[in-house]
Amino acid sequence: MSFFSRSPWILHYDGSSCNGCDIEVLACLTPLYDVERFGIVNTGNPKHADILLVTGSVNERNIDIIQNLYRQMPDPKVVVAVGACACSGGIFARAYNVQGGIDKVVPVDVYVPGCAARPESIIDGVVQGIAALEQKRAKVA
Amino acid sequence: MNPILLAPLFLLVAPLFGGLLTGVDRVISARMQGRVGPPVLQPFYDLGKLLQKDVRPVNPIVEPLLLGHVVFMALSGAMIVGGVDLLFTAFVFALAALLLVLAAGSVNSPYSFTGAERELIVLLASEPFFILMLAAVSKVTGESTFAGVLASPERVAPILPGIVLAFLLVATIKLRKSPFDISTSHHPHQELVRGLTSDMSGRLIGWVELAHWYESALLALFVLLLVNWSPPLALGAFLVVYFLEILVDNSTSRAKWQLVLQSTWAVTLVLAGGNVLALFLLRS
Amino acid sequence: MSNLVSFLVVFPLLVGVPLAFVTRGKVRNALVVAGGAVIALASLATAIAFGNGSAVFFGLPGDLEPGLAVVAAEAAIALVVIVVSLQHGRRLAPVLATAQLAIAVWLEVTGRMPAADPARLFGFDRLSMVMVLIVGIIGTLICIHALGYMRDYQRTYPQTGGRRQAFFPLLFLFLSSMFGLVTANHLPLLLVFWEVTTLCSFLLIGYTRTGETIGYAFRALNMNLFGGLGFSLAIVLLAAQPDGLDLARLTAGPAGAALLPAIALLALAGLTKSAQLPFSSWLLGAMYAPSPTSALLHSSTMVKAGVFLLLRLSPAMAGSAVGNLVAFTGLLTFLFVSFVATTEQNTKMVLAYSTIGSLGLIVGSAGVGGAELAWVAVMLIIFHAVAKSLLFLVVGTLENRLYTKDMEHFDALLSRMPRLSVLALAGIAGMFIAPFGIVLAKWSAIRAFLEVPGWQGAAFVVILAFGSALTIFYWGKLLIKVLSTQAVDAYHRSVEDRVTGFEWFAELSHAVLVVILAASLGLLSESIVGPYARGLFPGGTGALLHLDPAVVSFMVLAVLFLPALALWSWRKSAYDVNDFYASGRTTNGEHAIAAALGGTRAVTLRNYYLVGVVNGEAVFRAGIVVCGALLTGMIVAGVVLRA
User: Fold this and answer.
1) Is the Cβ pair B188, A74 closer than 8 Å?
2) How far is CA B252 from CA B26, B44, B179, B181, B246, in A?
3) Could you tell me the domains of chain A?
């Protein structure tokens, strides 16, 4: 066990979505769920982040954004797709501008289903992400 | 105790002190917001992780400049306890702060650059106070070293009320607390992303964090200079000041740079400058 | 000693005269380099011959009397001023020059001028030694730099074509007069050298002869002639006093009521020469001269003549109202111009304001007096001369290569011109970073001001606290530009390769000097500056450098370690200057960000100039009013109240 499991910093990105999952992600920061208990911080900056938490689907105009953000995160890093849209495109899947889930453009480590995903399952997804982070670190080290 | 031995002691203890302080800060802030908050040792976990992460510098000079930032921040504290002239350390302290500005400025990206410029303004706002404070402490006690001030029979704080009040304001700047956290803050949600640390990754942020712990310890040393007759009382006073800073941090919004500069200079000129004037008139 | 000093005064003229007729570049280069080397060696020899003793006095070889030669020289200067002024339809300068000449002639004709002691025409002490070394080494390095600089300058300003013959002779004439100025002990003789430097400055500022530069040249001439007139009046007053014209005897101790009027007038001359407020505008105008001129006359030597005189006067005026008012003029000048410098975008102007400010600190130290502050003043003279000259040379080179003096256009200098940016870094570090001499002097000044009793002491400390913070701000801004990085194409990277060898040599030598001087601070203080300061203000026994020299050396090493680390990291680490955070947008090309609707947007980052908080022009005007009032008060205190 390393420091990664005690200090996972998150970058939250929202693609094409109804913003329902975003509300739930923010709910995780509120006193009711308080993810900072686990050392989780919402950084808002890829260069500081360990976990890329994506809600919403990939569309034509945000492909390079998601790829840039992912690329700018230093290793080890994991991606957690939160909600139906991020996992597969959800109800937007057949929209003319939507490509599908996040895994179309960056490798996804954890899928968190739900529409919208509940805070408990988001936190659970992040915890699974931490496990993946540890594995990757072990590989790097 | 031999001052030469105190210097390495400071180098070892200051990060522990600063890190713990940050941990307590995060817990208290969380409690003020109705949350539980992270473990007290969280800052150490964070630093440990940051040092383990991969680093991708944007240019080759960021890391040397940041290392310089850490080294000179640590040195300015070590020099104080090690018996170097107090006023001189104000200039070493300024050099340390400047190196952080240069590290961020060298990246030349919109967020880092704006953060660097704002940090420079913050430096401009706070520097006169530190020079005046250390000059006044030397004047009151007639001593120019840390050990001399602590051994002096003169009690400094009662003679320097203006300096003490101004310290509360300037400490807000140095601890990067709202409303004066214009260059970067401990909270991720601000208009500048993370200001001057925006383009730093991995251990680079770790260096910034470590230097900030030294800086917090340095501020505690300054309080000790003001409350020179009783170290326990000084520690208590510092903790009270720190608690007030957390309270202010959680109850105010960020100010514009104009307000930061004007208010700090006005307070420094009137309270600290007035105090120095009174001191010169009464003491000579 | 006599022979060496005579050589220093005469030899530059011998180099200068043939230079006026040389048209071939190679011959000029050879003459300047060889002449410069001889002058530098001669100044070193003079310093070595002097050793480290107390002041020595001597006359001309063969005990010649200056006599009427002084009046003749003044007449020649006045003639040049009158002719050139009338050519341009200026009236004030001829009036001032004629008045000075009239005074000199009147003194001589009416027999009021006492005979000079032929054995005490010149004097040489540690301060003279410091100045001779600065003029001899920094001065000749600047002349060598000018060889490269002027070649490109002539291309930029082709209209100067016919006059380029005059440039180098003027520089060497200036070196000659400067050697005379810092060694003269007989005041009328000193005045002659003083006026020759004024004349050189005037001719060099107006070098391009555009309407703008002619205006600035005359402004400089008028103000300096005004100061010179004060000098002449002081000589009138002192001619009636026993030993009044012997500078060393005049300033041996606190001036009595009989001498104070003359001291005040001499201080006025010193303040004009060192461009203190309200006279600062001439130095700002002088920035339109070619950069080697700025480096030589307007930062490292000629303006130092002003503070040199004030430092000589320091024992005479310390403790008097005159001394206090001089000190306030200098320190408030430092504060005011530091404010203005934060709003200035033209790099040469920033350097000018910083020069005025540093001179203000020296003036303040000289005005208050005391061994500690004399130490501060000499340290500032030394370190400022080297660091500021380096900066002017580097900015001159940058100007020739980038066609701009705007600091915003020095963006990403580290990527575009890595070697020049390191040189600029050395100069800027010398100006305001902790272990280097200027900061040490500033810190020692604050310490010394703590001992000044009453409200004056408090005012001095507060002024220095705020002024120091302002210098950190404006140098920091420039440093951010100098050290910033971005992706640069091959053409822009190649620009640096066209810098001439002369420029590299001069700038690199300066940078090495900055570091060596900083590292040997303890030695410098112990063997030269300390004994001088103690000799000037005998009695004190306390330490002058309140710091273990080992700490200074250690810090210099620590600071030097950073560039070494950077170089290592440059070679080793993988980095991508385009990989900055742009909210996820793609960054590409030369510092551009992909735009939302296609295409790219260039990133333009500009420094803060405190817009809306500090109004530079208003501050400068306020400074003129405040310091003008102080100056008037100083003259009144000296001449009328004799306090």
Assistant:
1) no
2) 17, 27, 6, 11, 10
3) 3-134 (3.40.50.12280)
